Amino acid sequence: MGYLETTAGEPMQYMAAVYGHGLKYERPPFTFQSNDWERLAQDQMSKNSLGYVCGSASTGETDRKNRAAFQKWSIVPRRLVKTTSYPSLESQCLGKKLPVPIAIAPVGVQRIFNPDGEVAAAAAAAEEKVPYIYSSAAATSIEEVSKANGDGTRWFQLYWPSNANNHITASLLKRAKDNGYTALFVTLDTYKLGWRPSDLDNAYNPFLRSDSIGAALGFTDPAFREQFKQKYGKEIEEDVKNAAKEWASTIFPEFSHGWEDLKFLREHWDGPIVLKGLQSVQDAKQAVELGMDGIVVSNHGGRQQDGGPASLDCLANIVDAVGTEIDVLFDSGVRCGSDIAKALALGAKNVLIGRPYVYGLALGGQDGVSHVLRSLLGDLTMTLHLAGIPSVKQMDLNRDSLQYTG
After folding, report:
1. What are the pLDDT digits (tens) for 353-378?
2. Which domain holds residue 239?
3. Where's the active site on this chain (predicted)?
4. What is the pTM of this model?
5. Would the annotation count 351 as a binding residue?
């Protein structure tokens, strides 16, 4: 699709190019209906991969709340706001100026959705100038993903091993730093995988399988390899099944760390540290007190704990409590440009995109991910433009831009 290549990083040019091709009766290969991405991607995925990405914890209550929360807020348009250009999407987050206010959320085992997996997603993120967050549960090594991402902005997500494996944690952080990952995202809500009926119905846990689909980071890590060899007297390649189980138990250690353990991470990481998975004001204040650089208000897209609050419903209170002292990022339930705008208006510095880009990956690899990212940014741009909001900076886009309709 030529206009995907020629309009990389330019969502408004992308829209114009699509209409231009329409004059020659050519239609794009991917839909722009964001609500249809999931349904169409389901046709491309196996039952196992479909259950893994689309499934939620228990009854799915938290996931439904995430989606419904956005409809409680409406963007109130202003008129006769003189404009000479489209709204600026430039933002500031974690001490860095970014061209867009979104990032690729960390999603593991991406090769179960498309053979190119993380390589395709990382390359698309770089093309669209969107930060890419690498998952500890990736199906591709951190070095390969770094190469695919090139000059892009990339951040490293840690599923945090127990203190008994601090040497492995230190090794992972060193590799991330050596490969150009500039911020550390520590996921706090997944020390054990949640109660996920769709995965249980399929008896499918990708991290335990002998194809080691989610163990690329561990299998290429010298500290983990050495520990495995000492324990089993074999190289990983000689006993992949046990190695996969060992890696899964390393990054999902069953029990949570404590606040005091953050000291170890600070000693081994000299860049920004972001705590992902916070929903309480108390936790946010604690993160500030302990010198963290950012937090992600998130409930893991409703995939971990059921019966909890919508992520968006927690955002404003946390921003009010700590938003001037720490960067507050957001994820969970985002499906379109107006969702992004609402989260930014409520105080988020950046919005992580999760399931939608995975659907793009399933639909068309790198091109599919680029299409989803460009579509979301184009939708965001036009949402702001037609509402008379000149930029995503909080002097322009804030709670005054919204009306709560409950």
Report:
1. 999 999 999 999 999 999 999 999 99
2. 31-404
3. 300
4. 0.97
5. no
